[in-house]
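Private note to self, pasted from the team thread so I don't lose it. Backbone tokens:
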């Protein structure tokens, strides 16, 4: 059942020319529209295989339509920002997204106000 609400995000240039007044890169987190997904568990064999490659998958989601994902680097679920580790297209148009590194982030906060 697709009952979890997730958002995809990427870092984009926040200022014209991509730099702030001091010449540093000015970036901001740009969120996608809400997407409904099914939260899946990371299987034991998948977890240990990833560990041997130095990766630590933490959460997995299944989307009904692969077109909802446009190659963004981050996924936000319940105010926690994850980095997309891999995607896998399954039967039909479905897409599985495996993520790692859940970090509570003020910029990842999404509210229902005005959405």
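Design output:
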């Amino acid at each position: 059942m697709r009952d979890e609400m997730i958002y995809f995000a990427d870092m984009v240039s926040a200022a014209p020319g991509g730099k702030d007044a001091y010449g540093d890169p000015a970036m901001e987190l740009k969120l996608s529209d809400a997407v409904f997904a099914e939260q899946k568990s990371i299987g034991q064999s998948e977890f240990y295989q990833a560990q041997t490659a130095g990766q630590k998958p933490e959460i997995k989601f299944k989307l009904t339509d692969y077109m909802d994902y446009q190659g963004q680097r981050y996924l936000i679920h319940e105010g926690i920002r994850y980095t997309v580790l891999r995607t896998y297209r399954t039967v039909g148009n479905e897409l599985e997204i495996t993520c790692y590194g859940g970090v509570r982030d003020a910029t990842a906060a999404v509210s229902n106000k005005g959405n």
